[in-house]
Specification:
This is Aldo/keto reductase. This protein is of the alpha/beta class. The chain is built from ten helices and ten strands. It has a single domain, classed as TIM Barrel (Alpha-Beta Barrel), CATH 3.20.20.100. The longest helix has 15 residues.
Length: 277
Amino acid sequence: MPNASVPTITLRNGLELPAIGMGTWPMDNAQTASAVATAVDVGYRLFDTAENYENETGVGEGLRRIGIARSDVVITTKFNKRWHSREGVREAFSASAAKLGTEYIDLLLVHWPNPDQDRFVEAVQGIADLLAEGLVRGIGVSNFKPAHLERLADAGLIPDLNQIQVDPRHIREASRQANTRLGIVTESWSPLGRDGGLLQDPVVTALAEKYGRTPGQIVLRWHVQQGLVPIPKASSRAHLEENLAVFDFSLEAGEVAGLSALDTGDAGILDSDSFGH
C-alpha cells in the first residue's frame, strides 16, 4: 500500500512521486536487497538505482523479498552514455527492467547529459517513446544544467524530473529555478552533503538541538519543505526510520533561509559539461 504518512508530488505526466526516497549508491546487490526490504517495512515507496551502481538486481530482489505490490512502489533508474540514441534507450530499458524484474520502470533517467557526445536529446526522445508505449511512467534526466534543459525544450521534450546534487551548501538556485520554470520536479542526490561536514555545521546542529532532531533530519526537512525530493542513502533500520521522520515538524522561513545561506556556490559540484558516464 502507498504510505499515507509520506506526502506525494504529482509529476507532469501524472505520476505520484513520494516526497522522499531511498538512495542505493554505493551498496552492492546483497546490501541493497536487504536495505530495500527493510525500507519498505519502514515505509519507503520510492527507490533510486542506476545501471552504473550495479545494484538494480538488488532493488528488485528486495522488493520481491518483502512482497509489496509493484504498483505500490516507484522505481527510478538511470542509464549511461553508451545508450544515448532512441534504440539505445530501448536496450537500456530492457536490460534494467530485466535486472529489476519488472515489466515497466516508473522513472527512467539519462544519468549524465555528456554534451561532448551531444546525443542527450535523442536519449530523452527514446524515453518519450517508451512513455508513449506505457513502458515508463515518467521522463527523467539527471545532472542537467539549464542550457541542457533549454535544448530539450526547443525539441519539445520536457522531463518530469531532474535529479541533481543539492544540499544547503550547494543550493543550485539557477538549476532549481530552471526546473521550476519548466514544471520539472527537482530531486536531490547526496542531500546530506558528500563529506559529512554539513551535518556538523553549527547552523545545522543548533536547529537540531532546538527541535530535538538529528542534524540529518534538519537538512532533509530543508529539502522537503522547499518541494525538493531528497533520496538519502541508508541501510540500517534506525537510519532509514530517522530519514523518513521529517514530516511532523516545520522549520521557520528564516531558518530555511539561514540554511540556504550556507551555500558555497559550485565548489564541490561535478560539472556535467565535462563529467559523465
